[in-house]
Write a structure and sequence with these properties.
The chain is α/β, with parallel strands linked by helices. The chain has 16 helices and 24 strands. α2 crosses α3. It starts with 12 loop residues before the first helix and ends with a helix. The structure holds adenosine monophosphate (AMP). The site of adenosine monophosphate has 23 residues, from β14, β18 and β19.
């Protein structure tokens, strides 16, 4: 027997309909690329999204076509997402921080027909125009007054293009499993792979993200996703904020500490989210200026491991709750968040930080398991490392145009991460499986060592890699970037780790560098670092 409930497909454009009806006046404030701040609201975003949909359809864009966006977070980018998916076309966010040849590769692989972009990226597009033949039209996020001279064929200012549609248009309706969006993995290990989100997965995931134990937005929040819409589906905030009726602040191109601080303060932001490097910039700025964060309630930090010192500073110095989050492009992207379950709610001081530093527990709709190399489940004892695998309705089951099977026999996807899970379900990521340091047959967690090292007051950033060793196979090398103007010795840094880790985890050496290489999504690029130190001879190996 079937249930007798209405058939109401979970379509993403229903989210903006809901926001326009129930929170139509809620502001959406953006730092425009042209410079000034711009304010609109959800009712207006919906009206313009309908015009985007109408105008795209007039250009011949149809169900299943890919429309690329190469753009910072702004109201135009957000309304384009809804306009594109509202006719069953697919927004494909392109990460401008990828290498140019990767950008060319993914645009061709996705066969994007149209690209919507900021003025900032016109020189890049002009350079690669001959290599991306599927692009029929470039729509530039500006009005005709701000449109630069360009050699691009069929480039139009967005506002002029949009003015040709009157908005007398209705969303299309289709199966909720229809593709809505696309995002390529950043290729930390291997080439980019296309992840395709459906309307259903996006809607379910936004509802998941809204739980108080996850990002937890309400209609009283003012949310600022500093994480770009082009990074892992914008961490679901482009859907979750309008679903909750939360006001939005979109930071555009300027993601440095002072610019972020200005927006947090001027617009009384209550909840924000980004990778640790962004918060490093903000905290360094606050240390200098003595600024405070009286309105900010919660900062969501993920994309790479959040250092313990960062959690402690936000919470203890600025009174801001930190939600450490783990996820990946393939998971839409949220997998776990670290909020306190009843068992941990009374913890204080270091014991509390020990928990908050973990990546946290999974919500309904994400199932996890850790396995050994033979694929057998290992216990949730908080100690035994295993390969982390996940399944759920917003987890990828395949990559775009790729027949390979990426699921195990139970339907779990191997995340490529390694971690422990404790008895209450708290995940602690210890490494990418490719970055684990294998010393004498045992594993050393590079992430744990990095987290401890950045707790040293003179250290700006730390990375740990395995370096070849004749006796132990690999031993850890600690690579350090010092804060500007600081000096430190190897001995001083190693002494700082003493007593905090098992003796055999102690790095064999410390290398000071000016800069640590990063991926397009702000993660430490371990492959480049390993290549840089390929011929490095550890003192312990030189004998
Ligand atoms: P991406 O698809 O670019 O978001 O990258 C996903 C990968 O980033 C994950 O598989 C992890 O290796 C890493 N990652 C994301 N969040 C965290 C976190 N909180 N701690 C440690 N690693 C993380």
């Amino acid at each position: 027997m079937l249930g007798l409930m209405q058939d109401w497909p979970l379509l993403c454009h229903r989210i903006i309909d809901h926001a326009a009806t129930n929170a139509g006046d809620q502001p959406v404030i953006s730092r425009s690329i042209e410079g000034p701040m711009h304010t609109t609201n959800y009712a207006e975003i919906r009206r313009r999204a309908l015009r985007v949909a109408q105008r795209l359809e007039r250009d011949g864009v149809r169900l299943g076509d890919r429309v690329a966006t190469l753009a910072w977070n702004s109201w135009r980018h957000l309304e384009s997402w809804y306009g594109i998916l509202g006719i069953g076309a697919i927004y494909h966010t392109v990460n401008p921080r990828l290498f140019t040849d990767q950008i060319v590769w993914i645009i061709n692989h996705a066969e994007d027909r149209v690209i919507m972009t900021d003025v900032t990226f016109l020189p890049l597009l002009e350079k690669i125009a001959d290599q991306i033949p599927t692009i029929e039209r470039t729509i530039v996020y500006c009005d005709s007054a701000h449109m630069p001279q360009t050699s691009l064929r069929n480039a139009v200012p967005y506002e002029d293009w949009l003015a040709e549609a009157d908005g007398d248009f209705a969303w299309k309706s289709f199966d909720e499993n229809t593709a809505a969006g696309m995002c390529y993995t950043s290729g930390t290990t291997g080439g980019p792979k296309g992840v395709v989100y459906s309307h259903r997965s996006n809607v379910l995931h936004a509802m998941t993200a809204l739980r108080p134990d996850m990002i937890g937005l309400s209609g009283r929040d003012i949310a600022m996703p500093v994480v770009p819409l082009f990074h892992a589906n914008g961490w679901a905030i482009g859907f979750a904020a309008p679903m909750a009726g939360a006001a939005l602040v979109l930071p555009g191109q300027k993601l440095d500490g002072p610019s972020i601080y200005q927006l947090l303060t001027d617009y009384k932001v209550t909840c924000t989210a980004a990778v640790p490097t962004v918060w490093l910039g903000l905290l360094q700025d606050l240390e200098k200026t003595g600024g405070k964060l009286p309105n900010l309630r919660r900062v969501v930090i993920g994309g790479s491991a959040c250092p313990r010192a960062m959690i402690s500073t936000f919470q203890n110095v600025y009174g801001v709750e930190v939600t450490h989050a783990w996820g990946m492009t393939e998971m839409s992207p949220l997998g776990t968040t670290c909020s306190l379950k009843a068992e941990y709610a009374a913890l204080k001081g270091d014991a509390l930080l020990d928990v908050l530093q973990k990546q946290g527990h999974s919500p309904f709709c994400v199932e996890m398991k850790i396995t050994d190399d033979q694929g057998r489940r290992i216990p949730w004892d908080g100690k035994t490392f295993g390969r982390l695998k996940v399944r759920g309705p917003a987890v990828a089951k395949a990559y775009f145009k790729d027949d390979s099977n990426i699921l195990d026999e139970e339907g779990f996807f191997d995340t490529g991460d390694v971690g422990t899970i404790d008895r209450y379900g708290y995940l602690n990521i210890t490494d990418r499986s490719k970055d684990v340091i294998k010393s004498g047959g045992e594993w050393i967690s590079s992430i744990e060592l990095e987290n401890l090292a950045v707790g040293h007051p003179k250290v700006a950033e730390a990375a740990v890699i395995g370096v070849r060793h004749p006796k132990w196979d690999e031993r850890p090398l600690l690579v350090i970037v010092l804060k500007p103007g600081e000096k430190a010795s190897k001995e001083e840094l190693l002494a700082f780790l003493e007593g905090k880790i098992a003796k055999w985890w102690m790095p064999d050496d410390v290398a000071f560098v000016k800069e640590i290489p990063h991926t397009a999504t702000g993660k430490i690029l371990k492959t480049a670092l390993r290549a840089q130190f390929k011929d490095y001879v550890l003192p312990s190996a030189a004998a």
